[in-house]
What we know:
By secondary structure, the chain is mainly alpha-helical. It contains 4 helices and 3 strands. It has helices at about 15-25, 30-95, 110-135, 180-190, and strands at about 150-155, 160-165, 170-175.
Amino acid sequence: MKAFPRVGPGERDADSSNLMSDLIDPTPPPEPSEVEVSQASERDSALAAVLRHQTEKAEVEEHARKVRVRRQGLGLRHIALSLAVATSIWIWIWPPGVLRIDPPGPPAMWQEESALRLVMYFQAQKIEQYRIDTGRVPLALDDAGPVFRGMEYVRLTNRDYRILGRTGRVTLSYSSVEPLDAFVRTGANMLDLVAFN
Length: 197
């Protein structure tokens, strides 16, 4: 701006009219429609930026809230999981007496012998059935059918044979010359079975 010379109250300067004309901008003001359009687009872009910022801020706050909630729950979950794992390991490695199951001991000797006699009886029945069907005893034990575990077979003649039965602690022998029902005796009593020859 220009500095104005000091003029007294009733004095008028000759340049005062020129002064007014100097203060007016020689460029014409912009058209009102252009001003409104530029201001509207600036306003829209500013509003969009604010809304975008608000949305991002809300998303960040929501994510932070979820993380806080998750972290608050992690403490209880970890404690519960740790206790469950520790209890499982303790029960697995050092089970309390209430949870211990003692394995059953071996059967009594008389029970094992009776069971072996009964199995040998069934094996002899298969051999007898084979002898009835073919007129002779089998060459091998599996010719008469499936072989029970612990059985051995010895063919003596076309009509006679011997069966050896073994378990971990008991060994028995049966010859076809002896009566089968006398051999099975306690095995038959074990199942209330009456054996007939």
